[in-house]
Amino acid sequence: MEVEAAKVLGAGLAVMGVFGAGIGIGNVFSSSISSIARNPSAKKEIFNMTIIGAALTEAIAIFAIVVAFVILTK
């Protein structure tokens, strides 16, 4: 296998983490909506934790993209 083909394959595999992050963000907001529907008075606390959870999940996607770019540039 050529080196360039291996780089592209490795970058493609590294970007697979973005799919997991998308699913994770969907789960975070789905749970948030369910929680607020059950207890509307706790909306502020739930929303704050939802934003933190979404940010942490999105960080995984950013790390995956950075790893893919690093693989392609070396």
UniProtKB/TrEMBL annotation:
Keywords: ATP synthesis, Cell membrane, CF(0), Hydrogen ion transport, Ion transport, Lipid-binding, Membrane, Transmembrane, Transmembrane helix, Transport
Ranges in a coiled coil: none
GO MF entries: lipid binding; proton-transporting ATP synthase activity, rotational mechanism
Topology versus the membrane: Multi-pass membrane protein
InterPro entries, sorted: ATP_synth_F0_csu (IPR000454), ATP_synth_F0_csu_DDCD_BS (IPR020537), ATP_synth_F0_csu_sf (IPR038662), ATPase_proteolipid_c-like_dom (IPR002379), F/V-ATP_Csub_sf (IPR035921)
One Gene Ontology CC term in the entry: proton-transporting two-sector ATPase complex, proton-transporting domain
Transmembrane segments annotated in the record for this chain: 6-29, 50-72
Domain spans labelled V-ATPase proteolipid subunit C-like: 9-71
Cellular localization per UniProt: Cell membrane; Membrane
Site (Reversibly protonated during proton transport): 58
Function (record text): Key component of the F(0) channel; it plays a direct role in translocation across the membrane. A homomeric c-ring of between 10-14 subunits forms the central stalk rotor element with the F(1) delta and epsilon subunits. F(1)F(0) ATP synthase produces ATP from ADP in the presence of a proton or sodium gradient. F-type ATPases consist of two structural domains, F(1) containing the extramembraneous catalytic core and F(0) containing the membrane proton channel, linked together by a central stalk and a peripheral stalk. During catalysis, ATP synthesis in the catalytic domain of F(1) is coupled via a rotary mechanism of the central stalk subunits to proton translocation.
Family: Belongs to the ATPase C chain family.
Listed PANTHER family: ATP SYNTHASE LIPID-BINDING PROTEIN, MITOCHONDRIAL, ATPASE PROTEIN 9
Name assigned to this protein: ATP synthase subunit c
